[in-house]
Amino acid sequence: MSARGLLGSDEPLATRYDLALVDLDGVAYRGHEPIDGAAEGLAQARAAGMRLVFVTNNASREPETVADQLTGLDIPTRADEVMTAAQAAAELLATRVEPGASVLVVGGAGLHTAVRAKGYRVVGSADDEPVAVVQGFAPDLGWSDLAEAAYAVQRGAWHVASNLDLSLPTARGFAPGNGSLVGAVRAATGVEPASAGKPSPTMYRLAVARAGAAAPLVVGDRLDTDLAGARAGDMPGLHVLTGVSTARDAVLAAPGERPHYLAADLRALLVPHPEPVVDGGWWVCRDAAARVVDGGLELRGTPVDPVDLVRAACAAAWDAVDTGAPLDAASVPELG
């Protein structure tokens, strides 16, 4: 696998990789609405032999609820094809806490279910002397919930967060995510929590083990969680441009957040992916090219596939940065 650059594939990703670890919001759907090409791409990927596990930092919902939503959007899904941050947090708990111990759960129904399923006694107060606090997002969490978590952590309970996403997308815009709520407890206690969700690769590794896969592919829309988790777990990552992180974000991505593949949407699972190559000082991807000169990104070509220009731009920008050359972010336009 390339340490820092884009990969190419002469065959469709659905046949090159045996398992897709697919993010939800921004990839399979947007809020409660379908995303163009998502159902088609996933159905045809399954038909080609690729298995799917939907991996989400959302810890508030049960896997069955997630599966029902996907099925309602013409993406037939079983509950055992969903891996939530709640399940990952419970697995992380089990690395240090014996079954039967008391755990304070601050979060939604999915987190309560996952913790109980691992054999822990769920309590609701710091006065119950929990040995750990597990915190996940739920829209009805309030000050008293965060206060109980802070009291318990101050008394020595291990603080485990389902994920550290600072924001989450809603129909009205971006709202505070679990990371913002965890930050309140961190600020009150001075204790840094352990995290089970992306960008930690914990969920990916659990999903791969569950599926018995040999060649997994991470599919996501956020560089700082989905694709950073892929890099951290040494797994190839496909960045689809249907969600949070843009094509420009990919060009400017830090090494630990860079995707290995780029695509407009999930139909990209069904086609080969070109790899940019150097030609006469330009990074060329089919009929698109890019280079960095005196810190400025230059683009050339009007490709049939607009993503080819993004691929070429990423290759040129990343090569410049990694070899110590300057790159003026202002020279990178919106792409795609």
Automatic annotation (TrEMBL):
SUPFAM superfamilies: HAD-like. The keyword Hydrolase applies. It comes from the Bacteria. Pfam families: GNAT_like, Hydrolase_6, Hydrolase_like. Residues 289-329 form the GCN5-related N-acetyltransferase-like domain. The keyword Amino-acid biosynthesis does not apply. GO terms for molecular function: hydrolase activity. Keywords: Hydrolase. NCBIfam families: HAD-SF-IIA. This is HAD superfamily hydrolase (TIGR01450 family). It comes from Cellulomonas iranensis. The lineage of its organism: Bacteria, Bacillati, Actinomycetota, Actinomycetes, Micrococcales.
